[in-house]
Design brief:
Elements lengths: L2 E6 L2 H11 L3 E5 L2 E8 L2 E7 L4 H13 L5 E10 L9 E9 L21 E2 L2 H14 L3 E8 L7 H11 L3 E3 L2 H10 L4 E9 L5 H29 L1
Parallel strand pairs: 1-4, 1-5, 5-10, 6-8, 8-9
Antiparallel strand pairs: 2-3, 3-4, 5-9, 6-7, 6-10
Bound molecules: adenine.
Adenine binds next to strand 5, strand 9, strand 10 and helix 6.
Amino acid sequence: MNKIAIMGAMPEEVAPILEKLGEYKTTEYAGNKYYEATYNGVELVVAYSKIGKVFSTLTATTMIEHFACDVLLFSGVAGGINPSLKIGDLIVATKLSQHDLDITAFGHPMGYVPEGSVFVETDKDLLALSKEVANELGKTVVEGVIATGDQFVHDEKIKANIVKHFNADALEMEGGSVAVVCNALNVPFFILRAISDTADTDASFSFDEFMESSAIISAEFIMKMVDKVISK
Ligand code: ADE
């Protein structure tokens, strides 16, 4: 039986999930709060990490190593790169990279360090389950590459550079690091994002306006994924 980790980066990304749980137990650990609940007979651990690769690494590792979660679902918002992605649209990562990991000075490709890889691939079974959920809900979910970095991108040139190196469809600040953790610890993971902005000069305004509504769209889909994982 699975113990399911559900992660976001910001409080707004996990609030709609906590609302659905009813009762939960709060545990403080390593500077974060972890919310434990039983949902339809299965144990869930929910947490927001705080923004960025370091905090999300800490939280993903904690959920797996301390709370013994054996599958991890991430829900949140992203900046859209693929022009087909509009505000509120959902993207699920097929693979993720770290767009700010740069030792190109030594002849390596962007996103690569020795003994690592440029991309980490999402669990195929969870991707297949998400297709079933999307079909059942009649929702379009784009599958694509997500690039992660410790930077809120609001610049066309930076966006273009991320496309050049990673052919990314969306960007955010946690998925790539969570993917590295889950891959290293052999825990299947799934990264879902709803678009809050398009990482252009207006991105911060768009983010402020749409982050909460997009976070809800993502959280609603993630809870259907939870139902699906439980039913398998
Ligand atoms: N998350 C949502 N929008 C983002 C952006 N423009 N850059 C980085 N992370 C984001």
